[in-house]
Amino acid sequence: xxxxxxKSFSEYSVALKESSKEVRFYILGNLLFGxxxxxxxLLFNLYCQNxxxxxxxxxxxxxxxxxxxxxxxxxAAFLLTKINLRLLFIFIPVISSLLYFGLTLTxxxxxxxxxxxxxxxxxxxxxxxxxxxxxxxxxxKHQVLFFSLNGALGMFTGMIGNFIGGFLQxxxxxxxxxxxxxxxxxxxxxxxxILLSIIAFSKIKLATLKRSEKKTILSISxxxxxxxxxxxxxxxxxxxxxxxxxxxxxFKNVFHMSDSLIxxxxxxxxxxxxIGIMLGPLIARKIGKPMTIVVTxxxxxxxxxxxxxxxxxxxxxxxxFIRGTLMNMASPLSDNFALENxxxxxxxxxxxxxxFTWTGSxxxxxxxxxxxxxxxxFSRSFTLTAILYAISTIFYAIFFLLPANSFKKKKEKTx
Length: 415
Description:
single chain; mainly alpha; 81% helix; globular
């Protein structure tokens, strides 16, 4: 295992050395931005619970962020081909940090609601640009590594953000003896991390996405492949929306864990996922990207059920670690596999369409799940998540592993 890890990290080191300064500054900016976003994500619904918002109201807030994101994704794909992304990478952190800071200035649900909506809308431009930026600014031989590195970076920043968030919340609570104030200070520090990311992003001199002179951004060369790539995403988005936003509340309400312990658990989980994502390209090289995606997703499903029905906190936490690692380790491979199956001029549109599908389904599911959890508890939503993940995995296997559909297999074996 140690040898495999050393080999994996050596490959990433070579890829970084051979990449442009723009890519390295982009990764550094993502690091700071991600720490801030994950710090806030850990604390936000706990903060709302301390404002005496019900699970149903928290569901409305969480879904409003996705609601802000969904209608922006497709226009964003068109706009991103027209502008220098450097301006976007500076503008979005400034606006996002101000919006997140605004969350700390009010206790009114109807003031927080539009703020969460706007954070979703503005952050969408950033998210839509990620995949196409990597495809357009890295060499083909290193693209799968950079997709995995970007995904692993998300887990690493989640780990750091969760550790810091839980620690800050408990520390400021000890100092101020005021729980709401301690949440507000901690969230403000998260907003500061987001703002600091512009230091790195401002070093990017020029970042553009390839566009075709013959086609518009909305041109689709192969509608069938779009359906095959989007349909599994739909079921994953619904399943994730039912469960993922509420796991910290599950730990807090069912097992009475402290915020710092929840932050520690989330941080450890993301450390495991970080390692899993970094190993993803090595596994994909052996068995192919589609097989890696199907196997890891399928193996994660039993652990969702353990997380739901085994009420022993030790087993629940272990299941949380394993589920998160398996379910997320192939996500960057899935993004890379999707984008390499369409022409470069369509990559922004496909990435936006996938994101639209995921955020739209996540938004609806999170809204429904909040009401279901408030009425019936967590088990029903968590079980439905396992079923939906299984359906998504079956579709992916049918579309990309059956002999008639394995059109990328020959190419992958030569990589």
